[in-house]
Design a protein that fits this description.
Elements (H helix, E strand, L loop, with lengths): L5 E4 L13 E6 L1 H9 L2 H12 L4 E6 L11 H9 L13 H5 L4 E4 L24 H16 L5 E5 L11 H16 L12 E4 L1 H5 L31 H20 L6 E6 L5 E2 L5 E9 L8 E7 L3 E4 L4 E6 L1 E9 L6 E8 L8 E5 L6 E3 L4 E3 L1 E5 L8 E7 L3 E4 L4 E6 L1 E9 L6 E9 L5 E2 L7 E3 L6 E5 L8 E7 L4 E7 L3 E5 L7 E7 L3 E8 L6
Parallel strand pairs: 2-3, 2-4, 4-5, 5-6, 8-14, 16-23, 24-31
Antiparallel strand pairs: 1-6, 7-9, 9-12, 10-13, 11-12, 13-14, 15-18, 17-21, 19-22, 20-21, 22-23, 25-26, 26-29, 27-28, 27-30, 30-31
Helix pairs in contact: 1-8, 2-8, 3-5
Length: 532
Amino acid sequence: MKRIIVSFVLCMFTVYSFSQKNKALFLHHSTGGGLYSQGKVSDWVKTYNSANSTNFQITERSYPDTPWPWENYPYDYWKLWVNNACDNTNPNIECLPSLASNYGLVIFKHCYPGASVNPDTGSPDITSSRKSLENYKLQYRALRTLMDGMPDKKFMVWTLVPLHRLATTPEQAARAYEFVKWVKNNWLTEDGKSHPNIFVFDFFSLAAEMNENPTNGKQYCLKYEYEGSHTSNNSHPNALANQTIGPFFSKAVVDVLTTNYYITSISINTQGGEREITVDHGSLQMQTSIVPTDALLKSVTWSVSNLTGEATINSTGLLKAVKNGTVKVIATANDGSGITGELVITISNQSILVQNISIIDNLASDTIKGIGTKLTLKATINPSNATQQTILWSVENLSGKGTIDENGLLTTVSQGTINVIAKANDESQSTVQKKYIIALPVSAVNRPNLQNFNLFPNPTQDKIQLQISQMTSTGVLVEIMNSQGQILLKKRIFEPFTEWSIAQFSGNIFFITVINETSYNTKKIILSSKLH
């Protein structure tokens, strides 16, 4: 974490013009007002501008003000800015993005009652106005997130204003310092993230007695020499305090304003200086060179413009080739400056992937007639010049059955519905599916004596025997249905004599159908053991 008298942190949200980057807005109440006027902050900045040919400006404003109570503690800023109690139509309770819209830097602080820190309860509550370390930390974390959302703006927060020794206790003063230490040392680092647009002005350490056993005063209370009165408990720092600390504050403001926050140029290069991808679906890692090198927000957003070629790029700048030709890689600064860098990359030796496939069958409909019918399917590939022309064929057997070979030759096995799948044999894995109905041909007739088709006994107590003479090499398809027409069993057999158990099925009436390539026959079987 960088320090001057100032420590870092990140924050804020509207994009602004470069003319606004030299302007600071100071939000304060009485303590800040006293330091601004008696510390001659405006005069210090004018003197600096004259000596350094700069044009920095600082504007001060009482905030928040009516209709808000005269309070500006962590809870108040949280409720106003994070919990949306603010109102942009009233400058006294304006929202933070609106406040920052015309300034490069927004500074806010808390009045001295903020140092009246109570003991923790063990039940922190971000919505509570109770002044405690546990609540303050929750509210500051939410404010940090809010400012993180405005990375093109800078923010500075004062540490607490120490209380007069007569207005606090040693325990309360120690708790105030614990919060100050947390803000300086942990607030902007505890989450492991960078917050380069948030700064901390450590007013507490300048105004408080830091010695453990001072001659006068008390540790972590307002310095004895900065007390307005040694007998009353008014905690406003006196003129000496303001005159002493005023120049430190003025310099801190200018130091933040002069911090090189903006990127002025971006150059893109690659790890090995390559300008071409020659490997199929190869990649190149893009890198940036940022000017100035000490810009606070150096992150960029990567994008790619496909010229004659095609590529993709991820958030870390890894470019992956897709199609031969040229592409333009673009890096855009995330600091609101609008600065971009570009690099043209040539892509070669890329395979052309299949985009889509169509199945061609030359059928008048999606019905294939006959069992054992053979149909040659073909596939058209788009684009036609895809590198890999091989198609992977497969069949999903639904209520019917079929087989298909590597050349797309489909053979029907049993009637019903099948799903033919054609899949590209490349990285695209492009796939098309088409459903076909396998049906018996119209010429199929009901032949009661189909191949000496016999079922016995009928009725039966359990098993039936099926006898078929003159069995062909293609076998026959056997279907067992109940009285509701539901198929209970469907099987192709090749043996002339088989035995089946039907007692396992519910009901007492069944229909057995035997089907070959050209004929079918159905017979009714009664299960006598289930008759009443």
